[in-house]
Structure formats: C-alpha cells, structure tokens
Specification:
Layout (H helix, E strand, L loop, with lengths): L1 E10 L3 H12 L4 E5 L5 H6 L1 H18 L15 H25 L3 E4 L1 E4 L5 E4 L5 E12 L3 E3 L12 E2 L1 H4 L8 E5 L3 H12 L3 E6 L10 H13 L3 E4 L2 E7 L4 E7 L2 E7 L1 E4 L3 E3 L6 H4 L3 E2 L2 E2 L12 E3 L10 H15 L13 E4 L4 E6 L2 H6 L4 E7 L4 H6 L5 E7 L5 E8 L2 H13 L4 H5 L10 H10 L7
Parallel strand pairs: 1-2, 1-6, 2-3, 6-19, 8-15, 9-10, 9-15, 10-11
Antiparallel strand pairs: 4-5, 5-6, 7-16, 12-13, 13-14, 17-18, 20-21, 21-24, 22-23, 23-24
Helix pairs in contact: 1-9, 3-4, 3-6
C-alpha cells in the first residue's frame, strides 16, 4: 500500500471530478483523482456522448429516407446496427482517452479503485478484490461520485428483458417492441432512436405530459411528432405490475381510461436516479445527508468545510455541464478566489430527440405561478427561411418575458438544432437581457436563429414574418 500527499483529492472522474481536477491544477494545486471505472464517468462513457452518437446515426438515417424530397436518390437503404453501436462506443472511448491525455498535460495523478472517506479525513482506496492499495492524505477533498438509475421495485434490471439506460446503449439488434417507462430526457431519446430503426414503441409516463420538466406547449409539439411516427404514448399512467417471460415483458398499466396490459419484447426503465452516496464513509467523516443526497452550502462545502461535493451526488439538476460548473466553483473557492454562486435559474438543458427540445429559465406555468405578469413571444419554424430550405419546419421558439421590464424569464425551443440555438438565450437570460435587446440585435439571414429575434418581436407585437 502506498501513501500519497496532495492538495486536492477528488473521488470520481466524471464531468464534475475531471473538470475540477484540471481547473485545480491550473490554480497550482497538486491533484489526485480516484476513479473506480473509466475516466469521464457515466456521461462520457455510458450517457451523454454515446447516446448522442446513436442519435446522430438515427438522424442521418431519417434524412436519407427523405432523400427524394431533396431531389436525390438513396435506393436500397439499409443499416448495420452493430456498426451503429460500435461507432457510439468508439466515440466514448476516444473522449475518455482524451481525459487521460488532459490529466497528463495538467499533471493530474490518477489512482484506479474505489475511494472511501476515513474518520481522520483521508481517503482509502480499495481495488476490485477489496484490498486497500493506497491511502490519500489531502488538504481538500471533492466528492463527485455521481448517481445510478432507479429501478422499479417489482422489476429490477436484468440486462435482458428489463433494461437500464446503460443496457439500452449496447443491444445487439433493435428489439421488435420496447416499452419505455418514464418520458424524461433519457426515455424520449431512446424512443426516438429505436423507433427510427423499426422498433414498436410504447411510452408510459406518470405525469400529465411527456418531458414533464419542460414547457407543456413545447412538449406537446414533440408528443404530436412522436404520434405521427406511430409511437403509443400513455400519460398520467402508472405501471402497477410486471411479468417477465422467456421472450417478452408483460406490464399492467393504470391509465386515465382504465387498466391496460402491454406486452413488449423488452422494457426500458428511465424513472430518475439516486446518488452514489452509500458506502462512501460519509458518516465516519461527519458528512450530513438528506434523502441520501449530500448537504452543502453555495460553495459546495459539506458539513466538514474541507470536504466539498458536486454533481448528481448533491441533487438535481442532473446535468453534466452543471456538475462541471459546480466543480470549477468549488476548487476556485478552495483556492481563495472571489467566487460567485452558480445561477441555477440560467442553467440550459436539451433533449436530443428529433425534433430537439431545449430550454433555459422558467416555463410559462412556472412564471405565472411565481406571480410574474408575462408577455409571450412565439415564432414557428414553418415561417423561417432556413428551416424551410432544410426541410425541417416542425417546431417553434417560445420566449417568456416579464411584462413591465421586458426581462427574459424563460426561453424554449423545439425544432432542428434547438440545443445549439439555446446558447443565445442562455446568454440573454444570464445577463438579464430584454425582448427589445434581442429584437434589436441583427441576426444573419437565412438562419434558424432569426426565429429567436422574431419571437422577441412577437412579444412586442412587431413580428414581421407571421
């Protein structure tokens, strides 16, 4: 067993941990990361990156199927599903190796194993056999161990019939039918992907509409788009029982119209996550938790001031870029910099289905519930020149402004490249810009971003193209 002395020890090499490690090194700290699996964490290896690689394959395939509408011919169109999966895994592997390269460049040391806090504020590292291989002494500790998918209590993951998101990333072939439990970002993205390659999709969502965290008007556009693709969607519905057969899954579902029985080849469960806080040694180290999430202050210090925590471990929003921003804030605070708390009201988020959905700030319902007098601006992509020339006219931009000041409260987009368009709205929200600020900013023509300018104009009653 070796003993290591550093300025900062980080448990977890995902987007919270590895970004924090590099930033800490830039600030002159001696940094060590303890990672039990692969650098990059779930997001890079089994989430964001490989899933988006799969969705890109689906996007290209869908575009090829519409070749005739562009005056092109793509006869005998087919796909190689294992090759699609392989491409996804290569993308994840490449970026994971990239994190290793960045660690070497920034002199960040890595120990592979499972880290545990000790009573004296150090870290024990155990290998897969349970043998202690290292003891790490550090001035500061950052916990960034992420989270894991929740299971249905009566239908645990088995990797064959009942799938987690990880299982769904590496199937050898598209199932004939797939029941998806949960219509959040993960469930919706997999529905889009597998439907593209011929799988019959049924989505069951407990809440009143799909993408329950998004603006209802925006979610409705995606709902209708999925229905046109012959996906069955049951909202306000609950799985009450599951029978696992040799070749199928049978689920009992309570719906607003009464009980239904759904039979599918496989079932994907995407009903949220739970923090990886068990067996970290939190109690021994005096770290307080609430419902398994680590309690922290606005600088991410736990009840032990020298120990910080970031990412899914501390609760929602469960987004890689949030974990990274939290990690940077934490280490800059350790370094004594003048750091401002993260503005969670200006956090962007996106769902990479087709069409994409992206948002920042409040939904219309949230804004009205908080007592704001609002002005709403909308602009459909059917009236946008770039969308028409691209053949991607489904969707709209919806902007929510405070009526008196004109300040942007929320920005929502459903449509082609929504995730990329959102950057402008995130900047506007972060800097309290108004509908007039956006309206008076000249946008290049023809671009999808003109829809943002036009939606701002609509809030003022000055839209030109609708």
């Amino acid at each position: 067993m070796k003993t290591v002395q550093v300025d900062l020890a980080i448990v977890g090499g995902g987007p919270g941990g590895y970004v924090a490690a590099i930033r800490a090194s830039q600030l002159g700290m001696k940094v060590l990361v303890v990672e039990r699996d692969t650098l990059g964490g779930i997001c890079l290896n089994w989430g964001c990156i490989p899933a988006k690689a799969l969705l890109r394959s689906a996007e290209v395939y869908n575009l090829m199927k519409k070749a005739d509408s562009f005056g092109l011919s793509a006869g005998n169109l087919s796909f190689d599903f294992p090759k699609i999966i392989q491409r996804s895994r290569k993308a994840a592997g490449r970026l994971s190796r990239g994190v290793g390269f960045l660690f070497k460049k920034n002199n960040v040391e890595t120990i592979f194993g499972t880290g545990f806090l000790t009573e004296d504020g150090n870290i024990r590292v155990l290998d897969v056999s349970g043998e202690e291989t290292a003891r790490v002494k550090s001035k500061y500790i950052l916990l960034a161990t992420g989270a894991h998918p929740n299971q249905l209590p009566f239908a645990p993951f088995d990797g064959t019939r009942v799938l987690s998101s990880t299982d769904a990333l590496v199937l050898k072939e598209p199932p004939r039918s797939l029941l998806i439990v949960g219509a959040g970002a993960i469930g919706i993205e997999f529905a889009d992907f597998y439907r593209t390659f011929g799988t019959e999709i049924t989505i069951v969502e407990l809440l009143p509409h799909i993408l329950p965290l998004e603006d209802e008007e925006i979610a409705t556009v995606l709902h209708r788009s999925f229905q046109k693709r012959k996906m069955k969607i049951l909202t306000g519905s609950k799985i009450t029982g599951v029978e696992i057969g040799e070749n199928s899954v049978t689920a009992q579902v309570e719906t607003p119209k009464g009980p239904q029985e759904i039979v599918a080849e496989k079932m994907l469960v995407s009903v949220g996550v739970s923090p990886n806080s068990a067996n970290l040694g939190l109690e021994k180290a005096g770290i307080q938790t609430e419902k398994a999430f680590i309690r922290r202050n606005e600088m991410y210090q736990t009840s032990e001031p020298s120990i910080y925590a970031v990412g899914d471990l501390i609760g929602p929003p469960y987004l890689a870029h949030v974990a990274s921003a939290e990690g940077i804030t934490a280490v800059e605070h350790m370094a004594g910099l003048d750091v401002k708390p993260l503005d969670y009201t200006s956090i962007p988020g996106a769902i990479y289905a087709h069409p994409q959905v992206a948002r920042v700030g409040l939904t219309e319902k949230e804004a009205r519930k908080q007592g704001f007098d609002v002005k709403i601006g909308r602009f459909p992509f059917t009236a946008n020149g770039k969308a028409v020339t691209s053949g991607e006219t489904t969707g709209l931009v919806k902007l929510i402004f405070e009526a008196k000041s004109g300040e942007l409260l929320g920005g929502h987009i459903v449509g082609e490249n929504a995730s990329e368009l959102l950057g402008e709205l995130t900047l506007a929200k972060s800097h309290s810009l108004t509908h007039l600020s956006i309206r008076k900013t000249v946008h290049s023509h023809p671009t999808l971003s003109e829809a943002i300018m036009e939606a701002s104009s609509d809030a003022l009653g000055e839209a030109i193209h609708i």
